[in-house]
Amino acid sequence: MIYKRTVEDAAGPLAVESIAVPIHGFAEIDRAVAALADRQNSGVLFPGDLTTIALRDEIVALIARQRLPAIYSDPAFMRAGGLAFYGPDRIDLYRRSAGYVDRILRGEKAGDLPFQQPTKYQFIINIKAAKALGLDVPATLLARADEVIE
């Protein structure tokens, strides 16, 4: 619910219509993607979800068949051929978590430690997927990417 609200809040000022589609399996994803493919100038944002991560290969293939641009919130989609990933740098999160584990093992109470949010984000773009969609990725965007998949 928080993720949906955040996307809606960001979409408004950009004059982008946000359409949330609850899914529980591939058939629902297939129907939602087919409906979006019929709409002009549409794209897909896949939030982190156990269902979508488990079906990542099928989802990436479906998105490619429907020729929709998609941004994923898990880098595993990029290894399956997805277009773009943007999200917290997980390696950085794991390193910071290790510091907390150390502090707890040294006697600090977990409840006394401050809440932390991600401070480092990662952007990955797949040029091969972009070309398959007929997208020209500006050099300035490629320069900002943490990783470019050829």
Helix proportion: 40-55%
* First and last CA, distance: 35 Å
* Silhouette: globular
Order of strands across the biggest sheet?
1-2-3-4-5
Number of helices: 8
The profile of the biggest β sheet is:
5 strands, mixed
Secondary structural class: alpha/beta
Descriptive report:
This protein has eight helices and five strands. The chain has helices at residues 2-11, 26-37, 50-54, 56-66, 76-79, 90-105, 127-132, 139-144; strands at 44-46, 70-72, 84-88, 121-126, 147-149. Helix 2 (26-37) runs parallel beside helix 4. The radius of gyration is 18 Å and the shape is globular. The model has no long low-confidence stretch (mean pLDDT 90).
List its salient traits.
150 residues; alpha/beta; five-stranded mixed sheet; 8 helices; 5 strands; 13% strand
Can you give me a brief rundown of this structure?
With 150 residues, the protein is an alpha/beta fold. The protein has helices spanning 2-11, 26-37, 50-54, 56-66, 76-79, 90-105, 127-132, 139-144; strands at residues 44-46, 70-72, 84-88, 121-126, 147-149.
Can you lay out the helices and strands and say which pair or pack?
Blueprint: H1 2-11, H2 26-37, E1 44-46, H3 50-54, H4 56-66, E2 70-72, H5 76-79, E3 84-88, H6 90-105, E4 121-126, H7 127-132, H8 139-144, E5 147-149
Parallel strand pairs: 1-2, 2-3, 4-5
Antiparallel strand pairs: 3-4
Helix pairs in contact: 2-4
